[in-house]
Fold this sequence. Notes:
By secondary structure, the chain is of the alpha/beta class. It has three domains: about 1-55, no CATH class; about 80-325, Aspartate Aminotransferase, domain 2; about 335-460, Aspartate Aminotransferase, domain 1 (Alpha-Beta Complex). It has helices spanning about 5, 45-55, 75-85, 85-90, 100-120, 130-145, 165-170, 190-195, 220-230, 250, 315-350, 375-380, 385-390, 420-440, 460-465, and strands at about 120-125, 155-160, 175-180, 200-205, 230-235, 255-260, 280, 290-295, 300, 370, 400, 410.
Amino acid sequence: xxxxxxxxxxxxKTAYFxxxxxxxxxxxxxxxAEAPRLPELPETEVDRHYTELSKQTxxxxxxxxxxxxxxxxxxxxxxxxxxxxxxxxxxxxxxxMETVQGALQVMEDIEKYLCEITGMDAxxxxxAAGAHGEFTGLLLIKAYHKSRGDEKRTKIIVxxxxxxxxxxxxxxxxxxxxxxxxxxxxxxxxxxxxxxVGENTAGLMLTNPxxxxxxDPHILEITxxxxxxxxxxxxxxxxxxAVMGIARPGDMGFDVVHLxxxxxxxxxxxxxxxxxxxxGCKAFLAEFLPGMRAVDGKLERASRSIGDVxxxxxxxxxxxxxxxYILTIGAAGVPETxxxxxxxxxxxxxxxxxxYPMAYDHVCMHEFVMSLEQMKKENGVxxxxxxxxxLDGGIHPPTMYFPLIVHEALMVEPTETETKETLDExxxxxxxxxxxxxxxxxxxxxxxxxxxxxxxDEVLAARxxxxxxxxxx
Length: 473
């Protein structure tokens, strides 16, 4: 496919502007040394260029997208319609409050629903993404201990099955990260946790279900151990979609949560659009929340607020989409969504476990993790090879080589929005690829064969990326 600059020809145009009806003006001293070299194309070429790009871009509208821990599920178009309403898109964050009562109602309503779902008492909508929400929650924990004069609490405990952003967020918040191992079943090692806690423990960061897709049966004991040591418990909500409406972090003993609206509540994720990572807390932490909250048609700042973690009120239109989703599926739809996510994951796991060894063969939640370690040793076929082969079959690969505690890992999350027929087709493809890998392992390193780009040199791409077009003259 040609780049847009390669299609360009001088003098060709797409838009024709009317003649100026005011005097032309140019600055005396241009801000640029030379005019930008923009592509020049007729409308037909522009249309064909972007149509071709869309054909080479894979998304949930193209097919199965089982990317573990990322919940690449269908985003209902009604969400986009609501977020595009002029009453929302035409707002300015500095308008008088009496002119934005509808927007304030949106903020109040979603806080109420999210607190009900999580078992929290208050929430800020400011954080712009999941890791940003983590960082905000950790600042709440830090502010709490500081307010009590307990500044010796400088350590955050993070299990080795955590999302990679957890230790990074803790370090950014100024904490020392203490990693503890998982036990043989993929759960938190309680003995290791007891040894790790102490008078310098500020808190624990935990994802439940965890990154290997398991709900920890000792969750109440885990939070109790931390609380008895004087620490607080932080809930990473990235996997909440497996338990929402069924089990609440607040009831498990967690004091702080963050949510990924761009995962659990169906708003576009990653390259599909901006994110939103609200942070919620129990009542005793609410006085430290950042930003302004909508309360009874007014905006209020917490009495001992940590300040702002982002401008104004967060990614408001993402909040509109998430509220639309919650209102659409209703109180009954929230737990049904979680139950279907768990059902789909367990269905696929059971259909594959005779060929693909499961890292932990328990009943899983929304995702499961396979290990290709044995196949790599015996046949030389890696998790990467299997993932690349899936591309030829027309589905997006699962997450590769994560979590780090599983060697040659493939993490699959079917999501609740996929049909049984789609899952059966995916299972059949996984099984076909496994058979091919055993019979002809030597060809697996050549996969994929049907994609526009086959196997790029990933090391070269990472170390020497080409990020701008090089003009010949």
